[in-house]
Amino acid sequence: MKKWMILFSLSVSSLFAAPELFESIAAIVDGKPIMRSEVMENLYQYQNSAEASGKSEKEQIAYVLDKLIDDKVLLSRVDRDSIKITDDEVDLRVTQHLQNLAARQNISMAVLERAIRAQLGMSMAQYRDNLAKQVREQMTIGRIRQRYVGGIKPTRKEVAAFYEHYKDSIPRQYNCMKLAHIALKIHPDTLVVDSVRQFAETLIDSLDHGMSWEILAKNHSQDSSAKKGGDIGYFQKGLLDPAYERAIKTVDNGAYTPNPVRTERGWNIIRVIGRKEDGVRTAMILLQMIPTAADTAKILHLADSLKSVLTTDSLFEDAAKKLSSDKETNFNGGNLGWVEKAEVDTAYVSIVSDLAVGEISDPFLAGDGYHLIRLEDMKQVRDYNLEEDYMKVEMFAINYMEDEKLRELVKKWREEVHIEIRLKD
């Protein structure tokens, strides 16, 4: 059986590891130490994996240390490549982790804080600090990985070859369900659309008469960029709303669109700040079109009626193709594929858990519309296959190909930094 593992995912030290009474430096990489305790903590985790079972403890320690050295070599690119992770980014990721942890346990943040103090003997502030260090390193390695190996797109033939070669070692799915859904976006009626457009036109008129762009953006834009004068930074071609990109093609640097531009998010006034060969920097004033209560009631009535009449697989699939606003799934009848129950967003677990096979959920509000979810099938254990799980198998293949490319780069980078191994047998 072929063995495959994803490399270069930063090892996270266990907070429950046994204490090290005699600390020492195991290795120095580019002037930064790897402590013996760090090696031991990662060794405890590695020894619980299938890959470690056929190795002696000496070989296990060498393997773990080598991976930690690879991680430090990767982190050595930070200064060389001017990669920066802001404190705000780290703090947001840490907060999300804690919120998800509390949600999975169905407890409040206050209860989680008490549990951390009781089980780990540390305050929430200390736990956040420890977690922040790990998150920062993970995010940094992710940025390095994205810069040097991101964007690999294998062909279907390459994905199929990967699957045939490694299918025995691709993880199985447990406690999983096959889901399909219909998303019904709540659209504002024409009176709302027209009134917001007219207001956008009055803002353009104010700009034409010399009003400050920054003041108008800060006072009126309904995007998070408002506090920065609407500046959303540089975006490569193809990443912005198509209508947005079409509108700025003929706008000079420093100028703004002469008419409001309608996108998926609302009416926009767009200013071009500067251009690069592969992208453009813009600022925008976004005016959202907020549906009325009548608009919402109309879509809820539609969702209720659909639940009553979509009694078969084919009827649900046809309705998803015709009505669902989710462009990523409507073409294939709303199929979401197989997911483990643990992967389902905590906000929706109770919705799908109560469904029987073939049953459709009550309409529920999420984002900008109402949704219906249908439970297609359930299995306790299943293997991935190309027919039903192509996109997930493709992601496994992409990870593998990126790891291969990154491994070659790390070999090269190891020659560019000073590595001193001090760990004794």
Automatic annotation (TrEMBL):
PROSITE patterns: PPIC_PPIASE_1, PPIC_PPIASE_2. Residues 174-274, 277-377 form the PpiC domain. It comes from Hallerella porci. It comes from the Bacteria. This is Periplasmic chaperone for outer membrane proteins SurA. Keywords: Isomerase, Rotamase, Signal. Residues 1-17 form the signal peptide. PANTHER family: CHAPERONE SURA.
